[in-house]
Amino acid sequence: MLQPYIKTFLQTAESGSFSAAAHHLYITKVSVMNQINALEAHIGVPLFERTSQGVILTEAGRSFKANAKKLLRQSEDAIRKARELGGLKAQTIRIGTSMMRPATPLVELWESIDGKYDVQFSVISFHDGSHGLSEMLNSLGDTIDCFVSPCGSTAIFMNYNFQPFGSCKVCVAMSRKHKMAKKKILRWEDLEGESLMLLKRGESYVLDELRDDILSHHSSIQPVDIDGYYDISSFNLCEQQGYLMETLDIWEKLHPSLITLPVRWNYEMPYGILYAKEPSDAMRMFVDTINEYLLKQA
Q1: pLDDT (tens digit, 9 = 90+) per residue, 169-228?
Q2: Is 180 helix (H, G, I), strand (E, B) or coil?
Q3: Measured between alpha carbons, how far is 198 from 204 in angstroms, rounded to an integer?
Q4: What percent of the chain has pLDDT above 90?
Q5: Global pTM value
């Protein structure tokens, strides 16, 4: 079926490169290229001109794009009607969402999947105040089925299910007034002598490795322990006290007074779907469909 290939085609046309399309679709660049190659082979003509700066639609590609969205809608309508006539009714997935853990990436991921069954989403809002993550976790299996979050906690992995579909780069945030705020990228030596906000040991195996790296090789960096998990008050503290703060690239625009910079290190945090240990049948099918899709793209 061409439906997933058309979605990949439209995203590539909008993004202007295979890499950018892969980023938006949460799949690899190779998967995007393979899908576009398969679509072009099926149609029989090139849809994109490959250049060193990205991809450009050919005349045939522009013509195809003009009709692709309509074709995609017709395909989705046909599948939905067939499923309804076959007795397969839409399932509702309740997604928790907050400023730090928005539901959008999961909804967009699902839209790129030719799923086996129809899904409707009910989005339930949470605040990122004190104990915000704990409230979302406690709601799993009760008022919500899942939410999207970075996760590097062994304790969470033991008590909840986690389906990764990406990763976040560990970065450093600071006030826009900080002396290093104009840099493009940080090195370890830039952090020497600074106070760096970190989650307390035991909250994240990824950040525990980062802490061990600091203690073993960069002892002039002073860790500042943060109780629990980050919420918006943590970002306020960073700005008010002039600290550096370990953060993630997905939160780079969370606080308007902070700037987030990449660092020349290889620390990343898994990113994906958190859901209950004993999920509903609908949630189990939802995750199984996503996992099957991700395995095919790998």
Answers
A1: 999 999 999 999 999 999 999 999 999 999 999 889 999 999 999 999 999 999 999 888
A2: coil
A3: 10
A4: 60
A5: 0.69
Query: 153: alpha, beta or left, given left = phi > 0 and alpha = psi -120 to 50?
Result: beta
pLDDT tens-digit profile of 93-111?
Answer: 999 999 999 999 998 899 8
Question: Taking the mean position of all CA atoms in its chain, how far away is CA 84?
Answer: 31
Distance, CA of 35 to CA of 291 (rounded, Å): 19
Residues 6+ apart with CB under 8 A from 155: 202, 203
Report how far Cα 161 is from the mean position of its chain's Cα atoms.
Answer: 17
Q: Is 274 within 8 Å of 162 (Cβ atoms)?
A: yes
Give CA–CA dist 275/156, Å, rounded: 10
Rg over CA atoms, the chain: 22
- Give CA 174 to chain center in angstroms: 23
What 8-state DSSP symbol labels residue 51? E
